[in-house]
Amino acid sequence: AFICYVEISFIKHIQGADRILSILYALSYLNSHQILFLETKVQIKITVKSDRTFDLLVNQLAKLPDVLNII
Measured between alpha carbons, how far is 25 from 68 in angstroms, rounded to an integer? Predict the structure, then answer.
């Protein structure tokens, strides 16, 4: 299993957060998270722990039209 820290920025609306958290829960990646609502975007800072590859998570999140950046 791996553990890492990921920061995801996306366009500010509640559906974006819901989609991202759904993917994280469905793929069993989420260990802990913090959501920051900024002026023009939202950031989710998460700690990820999983036996699945990190690339799978990034590929799934990159498919979402609301996602601006994955660090």
Answer: 20
Name every residue whose Cβ is closer than 8 Å to that of residue 61 and which is 6 or more positions away in sequence.
Answer: 8, 20, 23, 67, 70
Please write down the HEC assignment for all residues of 2-65.
EEEEEEEEEECCHHHHHHHHHHHHHCCCEEEEEEEECCCEEEEEEEEEECCCHHHHHHHHHCCC
- pTM of the entire predicted model: 0.81
Query: Which is it for the CA torsion 56, 57, 58, 59, positive or negative?
Result: positive
Condensed to tens digits (0 to 9), the pLDDT of residues 16-34 reads 888 888 888 888 788 888 9
